[in-house]
């Protein structure tokens, strides 16, 4: 195919800037999620249509970001961080309460969850901060990074949203790790965190959070209350067996036993209908995305690119791991969606932005390699 062929020109415009392996993985999950969401929503098209719109916008962002140089994206770190903090403060004073939690903000006709913005803004800001001191990093710079992390995390904890706060805080810690944080410090921090758990339990957790932890170890203590979610999701996963019951044939799903079946607990729907084999395939795609992201991080040419790529990759991994873990009954129930699968516009777009920035970093690597010849 010649360079002037129309198909070749279309490929160069729309596909070449993006990492083909990441793009293929995203397409696999997206196509699977359409079938899954249609089943989870009882054969209705409303959420499916909105999911399609969210994903179309996500792919537009993916393509657009892949064509922008990482240096230009880095200049957006401070505005994204400050904007996210301002929106979180807006939630404090003008937020919308749903089920006792004030996590959303109405801006005109839109309802957004500012904590989703901090998934992107926080690691970008911490990475830009470290890039500024690239050649002269000292121990006190890591303390400064903790301050950058602590402000939005504290605001999210006050909503209250412990699960999201921990995961967003972890994204900042990942940046610190990829910036060269000593393994000794990591080990000591983990030990101190474990030792402080009794104090955290007594003074740092709301009662509903304690209930979730107790329910994890004994969901049968309140089968129609706090334990209902875990019990029903584990029944669905177990009844799927090895091969699953087949698409649209999940009894737990279509008899409405699975709560939040299109959002937080959509993996239970998937496991019931596609079984263990389907679970393995989905996890394999997530693992492939993580491995590919870490390869991009390892091949990065600047500290900012390496830390952002590594943090975004590990953030996607953490959200997938936590969601699958809570639905399977090995982690407490928290409001964490399954990346690229669960229904939700803000969550979908935030993940697509992360992957788009990964592609931008990869594209910059490719241009750099080509310029050597």
Automatic annotation (TrEMBL):
It is a multi-pass membrane protein. It is found in: Cell inner membrane; Membrane. Keywords: Cell inner membrane, Cell membrane, Cell shape, Cell wall biogenesis/degradation, Glycosyltransferase, Membrane, Peptidoglycan synthesis, Transferase, Transmembrane, Transmembrane helix. Its EC number is 2.4.99.28. Pathway: Cell wall biogenesis; peptidoglycan biosynthesis. It comes from the Bacteria. Pfam families: FTSW_RODA_SPOVE. The chain crosses the membrane at residues 21-40, 80-101, 139-157, 224-243, 274-295, 307-334, 340-361. Its main location: membrane. It catalyses: [GlcNAc-(1->4)-Mur2Ac(oyl-L-Ala-gamma-D-Glu-L-Lys-D-Ala-D-Ala)](n)-di-trans,octa-cis-undecaprenyl diphosphate + beta-D-GlcNAc-(1->4)-Mur2Ac(oyl-L-Ala-gamma-D-Glu-L-Lys-D-Ala-D-Ala)-di-trans,octa-cis-undecaprenyl diphosphate = [GlcNAc-(1->4)-Mur2Ac(oyl-L-Ala-gamma-D-Glu-L-Lys-D-Ala-D-Ala)](n+1)-di-trans,octa-cis-undecaprenyl diphosphate + di-trans,octa-cis-undecaprenyl diphosphate + H(+). Peptidoglycan polymerase that is essential for cell wall elongation. Belongs to the SEDS family. MrdB/RodA subfamily. HAMAP family: PGT_RodA. This is Peptidoglycan glycosyltransferase MrdB. The gene is rodA.
């Amino acid at each position: 195919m010649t360079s002037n062929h129309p198909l070749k020109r279309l490929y160069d415009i729309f596909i070449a800037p993006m990492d083909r392996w990441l793009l293929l993985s995203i397409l696999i999950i997206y196509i699977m999620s359409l079938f899954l969401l249609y089943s989870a929503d009882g054969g209705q098209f409303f959420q499916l249509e909105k999911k399609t719109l969210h994903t179309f916008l996500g792919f537009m962002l993916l393509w657009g970001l892949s064509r922008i140089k990482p240096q230009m994206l880095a200049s957006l770190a401070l505005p994204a961080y400050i904007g996210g903090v301002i929106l979180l403060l807006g939630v404090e004073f003008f937020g919308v309460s749903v089920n006792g939690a004030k996590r959303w903000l109405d801006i005109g006709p839109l309802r957004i969850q500012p904590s989703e913005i901090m998934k992107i803004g926080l690691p970008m800001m911490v990475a830009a901060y470290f890039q500024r001191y690239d050649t002269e990093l000292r121990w006190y710079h890591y303390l400064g990074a903790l301050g950058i992390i602590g402000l939005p995390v504290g605001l999210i904890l006050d909503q209250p949203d412990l699960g999201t706060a921990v995961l967003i805080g972890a994204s900042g810690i990942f940046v610190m790790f990829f910036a060269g944080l000593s393994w000794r410090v990591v080990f000591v921090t983990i030990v101190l965190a474990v030792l402080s758990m009794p104090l955290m339990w007594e003074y740092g957790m709301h009662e509903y959070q304690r209930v979730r932890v107790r329910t994890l170890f004994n969901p049968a203590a309140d089968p129609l209350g706090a334990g209902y979610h875990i019990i029903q999701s584990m029944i669905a996963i177990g009844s799927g067996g090895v091969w699953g019951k087949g698409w649209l044939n999940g009894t737990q799903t279509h008899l409405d036993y699975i709560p939040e079946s299109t959002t937080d607990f959509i993996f239970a729907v998937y496991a019931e209908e596609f079984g263990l084999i389907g679970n393995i395939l989905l996890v394999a795609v997530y693992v492939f995305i993580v491995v590919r992201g870490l390869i991009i991080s390892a091949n990065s040419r600047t500290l900012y690119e390496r830390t952002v790529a590594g943090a975004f990759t590990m953030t996607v991994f953490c959200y997938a791991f936590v969601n699958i873990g809570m639905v399977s009954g090995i982690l407490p129930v928290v409001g964490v969606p399954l990346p690229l699968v669960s229904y939700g516009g803000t969550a979908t777009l935030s993940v697509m932005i992360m992957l788009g920035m990964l592609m931008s970093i990869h594209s910059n690597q490719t241009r750099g390699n080509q310029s050597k010849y």
